[in-house]
């Protein structure tokens, strides 16, 4: 139940007092919108995947006409369309994307893993080597708004990993072209194979392959609930690996009484405008701060071009009064948000309390939008609670880490008896015999 009732003039967001909720109420408060319609989404996606798997390009044309309202004979972006995109993008936007790409590259290059080798016993050398995933498919949404930033977030680490084949899918516009900024961003990061395909059908094309679209080994990128579900299903059936569950956007803000309410409201709205199935949450130990944020939400919402989308998302929002910041962090770790903003006076001092989050933003001067575009971190992040076990995209997401071992005569003599003893304890006699025969040969 709500501890503070909205007046009729107030918007329909949900203001709650955590201590006044029972266990069921707390569970409802942390339920994402996509979880409510999960069964219907699963069935619809399964039908799309089977159609593309069985009928290939024919199904892609039908689905594109149905969902994107455009008829396409050819899906792959031509050289002429790339050239037109270069001409259509302003120098200012191109400079901004180039600057963002350089910071994304710097951050991701610094975090790249290295192979290593260790002699674990005399004559026994164990190594880890790194290889790129050979064929990767990148999905860049462009439903209600194109996202060239996502193209950078995916293409830059793929280039650093040196994947052999990189293809990108993005939904077509009403005129049958791809968004020019998405194409320029892809080219900036070295990707020039782009297909005008969106939704679950794009994921199906990448997973199964068609006459036009090459099959890939792993699929990356965020999307709506249908895209996210399609990724889950193709991974489950073994058609392709995926980066992570990455569906509708979400943000959780933990704020104290000293937080700037205008900043907090703007961060909540920046995620709410993504789509009606996005979710935003504010946790604060200050009722006064929540009052001030409510007023800012109402004021700022009226000035947004995407206000109607944001309003729908705000219907599933939560403004939660907590007893303490300790309680706020416990709630946040249960929710495991895609984005976590610490609008606190000493935010870094609280950082060790964060157990599960896709990306964390510290203090009043670090809006989530910086991470979306140009700070350098990646904005392709786990959603729907997946941050408890998944991480955001990095160069390592595009790589395989392969273990290697080599034993010499000295090595098998040093550790062979250990393997024989353990194999016999597990009643795996063939395992034991494979080692014992070598021990006899090495001792001869």
Question: What's this model, at a glance?
Answer:
The chain is an alpha/beta fold.
Please tell me what the overall shape is.
globular
The secondary-structure element order is: EHHHHHEEEHEHEHEHEEHEHHEHEEHEHH
- Terminal Cα span: 79 Å
Low-confidence stretches: 1-12
* Strand-residue proportion: 15-25%
Give the overall pLDDT as a whole number: 95
- Extended strand count: 14
Q: In order across it, which strands form the biggest sheet?
A: 1-11-10-9-12-13
Supply the number of helical segments: 16
Largest sheet: 6 strands, parallel
Q: How would you classify the helix and strand content by structural class? A: alpha/beta
Fraction of helical residues: 40-55%
Rg computed from alpha carbons, rounded to a whole number of angstroms = 25 Å
Can you describe what's shown?
The chain is of the alpha/beta class. 45% of the residues lie in helices and 16% in strands. It has 16 helices and 14 strands. The protein has helices at residues 23-29, 33-36, 38-67, 79-88, 91-110, 148-161, 180-188, 199-208, 225-236, 261-272, 287-302, 307-314, 325-335, 368-373, 409-425, 429-443, and strands spanning 14-17, 116-121, 124-132, 135-139, 165-170, 194-196, 218-220, 241-242, 250-255, 279-284, 318-321, 339-343, 359-362, 399-407. The strands form three sheets. The chain has a six-stranded parallel β-sheet with strand order 1-11-10-9-12-13, sandwiched between helices. β4, α6 (148-161) and β5 (165-170) form a beta-alpha-beta unit. The longest helix is centred in the first third of the chain and has 30 residues, at 38-67.
């Amino acid at each position: 139940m709500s501890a503070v009732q909205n007046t009729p003039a107030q918007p329909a967001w949900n203001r709650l007092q955590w201590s006044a909720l029972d266990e069921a109420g707390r569970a409802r408060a942390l339920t994402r919108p996509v979880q409510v319609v999960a069964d219907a989404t699963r069935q619809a996606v399964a039908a799309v995947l089977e159609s593309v798997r069985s009928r290939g390009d024919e199904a892609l044309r039908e689905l594109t006409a149905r969902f994107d309202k455009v008829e396409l004979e050819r899906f792959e972006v031509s050289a002429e369309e790339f050239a037109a995109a270069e001409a259509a993008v302003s120098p200012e936007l191109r400079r901004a994307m180039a600057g963002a790409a350089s910071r994304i590259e710097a951050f991701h290059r610094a975090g790249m893993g290295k192979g290593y080798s260790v002699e674990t016993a005399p004559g026994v050398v164990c190594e880890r080597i790194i290889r790129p995933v050979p064929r990767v498919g990148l999905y860049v949404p462009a439903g209600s708004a194109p996202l060239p930033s996502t193209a950078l977030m995916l293409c830059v680490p793929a280039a650093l990993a040196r994947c052999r084949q990189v293809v990108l899918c993005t939904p077509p516009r009403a005129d049958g072209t791809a968004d020019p900024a998405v194409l320029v961003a892809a080219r900036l990061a070295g990707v020039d194979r782009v297909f005008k395909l969106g939704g679950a059908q794009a994921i199906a094309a990448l997973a199964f392959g068609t006459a036009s679209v090459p099959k890939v080994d792993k699929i990356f990128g965020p999307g709506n609930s249908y895209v996210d579900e399609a990724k889950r299903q193709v991974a489950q059936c073994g058609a392709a690996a995926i980066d992570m569950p990455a569906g509708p956007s979400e943000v959780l803000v933990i704020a104290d009484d000293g937080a700037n309410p205008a900043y907090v409201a703007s961060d909540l709205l920046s995620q709410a405008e993504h789509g009606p199935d996005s979710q935003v949450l504010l946790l604060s130990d200050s009722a006064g701060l929540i009052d001030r944020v409510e007023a800012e939400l109402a004021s700022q919402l009226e000035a947004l071009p995407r206000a109607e989308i944001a309003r729908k998302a705000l219907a599933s929002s939560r403004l939660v009064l907590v007893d303490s910041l300790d309680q706020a962090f416990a709630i946040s770790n249960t929710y495991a948000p895609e984005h976590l903003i610490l609008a606190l006076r000493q935010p870094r001092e609280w950082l060790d309390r964060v157990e599960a989050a896709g990306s964390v933003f510290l203090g009043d001067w670090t809006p989530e939008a910086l991470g979306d575009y140009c700070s350098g971190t990646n904005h392709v992040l786990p959603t729907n609670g997946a941050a408890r076990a998944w991480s955001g995209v990095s160069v390592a997401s595009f790589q395989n880490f392969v273990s290697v071992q080599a034993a010499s005569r000295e090595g098998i003599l040093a550790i062979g008896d250990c393997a024989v003893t353990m194999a016999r304890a597990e009643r795996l006699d063939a395992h034991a015999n494979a080692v014992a025969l070598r021990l006899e040969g090495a001792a001869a």
